[in-house]
Model the fold of this input.
Amino acid sequence: MSDVIFRKGNRVILRPLERGDIPILRRWMNDPEVTQHLLRVLPITEKEEEEWVENIGKSKNDITLGMTLAEDKKLIGSMGLHQINWQHRTAVTGTVIGEKEYWGKGYGTEAKMLLLDFAFNALDLHAVLSKVMETNGRSLAYGKKCGYEEVGCIPKWIRQQNGERCDEVLLIVTQEKWRPLWQEYLKKNMQNAQ
Ligand SMILES: CC(C)(COP(=O)(O)OP(=O)(O)OC[C@H]1O[C@@H](n2cnc3c(N)ncnc32)[C@H](O)[C@@H]1OP(=O)(O)O)[C@@H](O)C(=O)NCCC(=O)NCCS
Done:
């Protein structure tokens, strides 16, 4: 278990991914229940996963982090800021919690708030975009808890693994919309720490 900490919340830590994480990431990305709402559908070999992890950090426009439990440092997911445009100060987020027993328990929301703290406070981005399948109710819900608002959708853009098509929903959170939520988050965390 890695003891590296990049950002720490009450229950979740964000840290860089490491070589030792590769078997866990590969397990997640080959699990159809985990990938049903992701665009990646092909199987992932050990070599491909190794290359993916080796390449993290080479691009200055993509930042990918592992999400671990604060209590025991178990890796449960990964999350990133992608296609960072330094001129327009925008990025696209992507998230996967691969350990399914941790879905719907608030870990994604906390991790996203920590990632947005980095995006908005440290990098001074203006806004962050998320693209979500209309059938992914959990992802739509957690994004809105972090301040994302639906700004449109691309009809029938996605062909799901069950063969049915669905809309791709576009959600955006701006630094301005996120700030009051971050203040609430900090207040709640300080109360919990007392
Ligand atoms: C999407 C994901 C990152 C969300 O993280 P999470 O930790 O599960 O989300 P949270 O528990 O923080 O928040 C989920 C919210 O959705 C609600 N929810 C759960 N299932 C839902 C559903 N089917 N429809 C609508 N809302 C739902 C929860 O009740 C919760 O809201 P609440 O706290 O107000 O009750 C995570 O579930 C995941 O990685 N899923 C698989 C991969 C994926 O879909 N990635 C996103 C691609 S865009």
